[in-house]
Amino acid sequence: MGSKKLVIEAKSVVTPFEELRDIIVEVEGRYISQVVPAQSFHSQGGSRIAADIVAPGFIDLQVNGAGGVDASQVAELGLDTVSTTLARFGVTGFLPTVITAPQRELVQSLNALGRALEKPLDGAAALGIHLEGPFINPVKRGAHPVNGVKIPKVEYFQKLQDAANGRIVYLTLAPELPGSLDLIKYARGVLPIVSMGHSDATYEQALEAMRAGCDFATHVFNAMRDFHHREPGLVGIILTETRMRASVIADGTHVHPAVVEMLLKVKEPTRAVLATDCISAAGMPDGEHRFGTLTVFVKNGVCHDQEGRLAGSTLTMDLAVRNCLSWTHLARTAIFRMASYNAAEALGVADRKGTVTKGADADLVLLNETMKVEKTIVAGQIVYSRN
Questions:
Q1: Residues 252 and 360 occupy one common structural domain
Q2: Scanning 58, 81, 231, 361, which has the fewest C-beta atoms within 10 Å of its C-beta?
């Protein structure tokens, strides 16, 4: 029995390196088998659907939760609700993210996530785990609970990785803390992404960490030393060093639209990554929601903890894309690249994800002309359809 075939008739395909018009994207099984001009397509059979815009499925590197479920609740509630909620917004791959917590709770959460990642999900695919903390600077902890903050130690990180069954692929830490450089060098040998974040690092401290192998920054401008013309700090490294990738939360609350535009004028869009930092409230009404071990309060889509600090977001990847289209000078190709390929490249999976090319995984988002998601396809299967 042959592989299931799907033929997508697209007015536009954003690969995301170029934008093509009047294209057929053919999917066979889990993979893209053809991307050809409509007039050149002669294959027979398969289900046919039409789309205004076809692009690589979005990849979100920082998902604390969605659909009312927090990543720390996976033992009881599983990941499927998070996965299917994300698929509604065009996400085909994501990293469930665990924030700082006391050791017992952290180990339990990672253990449950490690088991959950062994099973296929109903929506977006989980591509690994993002461990955001506990090796952060208490003065830049944001909403992370202070009772879980730890000094960086290779042995403790390895204990957490063992609890996660080796599924941690992204570590965020503060590079100025004692022991950080040793952990960076170790983690860089075993993880695709070792990132600076929740940090009060000076420019020199951040530069030293970058030279040690830490070439990513988590949610630029947020939970890091403010930029100053005499001490530019980590932001100065992000803006001036071409080796540095950085994620940005483009919701208009965490970072002002003008600052997002500034970032993307200074930083090549090839090195910027859209991420949401969304919590369990994503895709849900305002009210009380879970964020790690915390209860947070959401009003008008903005999340705060009990002390009034921002605590994650309700941002979705499709909205981040629309925001960047509205706020910046960039073409659609660059913005779709920031939402897909750049994350895949950072994870080391760009040979098969983040592109609409022959042989790549059939992880696709289909949008209408207003950039609203119509369908999401993961591994060749339609996992979300608006109608």
A1: no
A2: 231
Give the tens place of pLDDT for each residue, 294-335: 899 999 999 998 888 998 999 999 999 999 999 999 999 999
Q: What percent of the residues of the chain are helix, what percent strand, and what percent coil, each to the nearest 5?
A: 30, 30, 40
pTM of the model: 0.96
- CATH number assigned to the domain comprising residue 43: 2.30.40.10
Q: Strand pairing partners for 173? A: 196
Is there a single domain that holds both residue 262 and residue 243?
yes
Contact 225, 215 (CB under 8 A): no
Calculate the alpha carbon distances from 261 to 51, 143, 352 in Å. Answer: 29, 26, 30
Catalytic residue among 60, 200, 215, 277: 277
Phi, psi of 139 (to 5 degrees): -75, -15
- Look up the CATH number of the domain holding residue 318: 3.20.20.140
Residue 292 has pLDDT above 70, yes or no: yes
Give tens-digit pLDDT for 346-357: 999 999 999 999
3-state secondary structure at position 347: helix
What does the radius of gyration of the chain's CA atoms come to, in whole angstroms?
20
Check residue 75 and give its pLDDT: 82
Tell me phi and psi for residue 360, to 5 degrees: -75, 160
- Domain range for 114 is 58-347
* pLDDT at 254 exceeding the cut of 80: yes
Query: 177: left (phi > 0), else alpha (psi -120 to 50), else beta?
Result: beta
277 is annotated as an active-site residue = yes
pLDDT recorded at residue 387: 83
Q: Which of 77, 167, 89, 169 is nearest to 124 (CA)?
A: 89
Q: What is the 3-state secondary structure (H, E, C) of 82-95?
A: HHHHHHCCCEEEEE
Q: Please give the tally of structural domains in the chain.
A: 2
Q: Residue 91 region, left (φ>0) first, then alpha (ψ -120 to 50), else beta?
A: beta
What would you measure as the largest C-alpha separation in the chain, in angstroms?
67
Contacts of 273 (CB under 8 A, 6+ apart): 61, 245, 246, 247, 248, 338, 342, 343, 346
Over the stretch 106-156, which tens digit does the pLDDT of each residue have? 999 999 999 999 999 999 999 999 999 999 999 999 899 999 999 999 999
Q: In angstroms, rounded to a whole number, what is the distance separating the alpha carbons of residues 190 and 257?
A: 36
Residues 329-347, mean pLDDT to the nearest whole number: 97
Q: In 10 A of CB 100, how many CB atoms?
A: 27
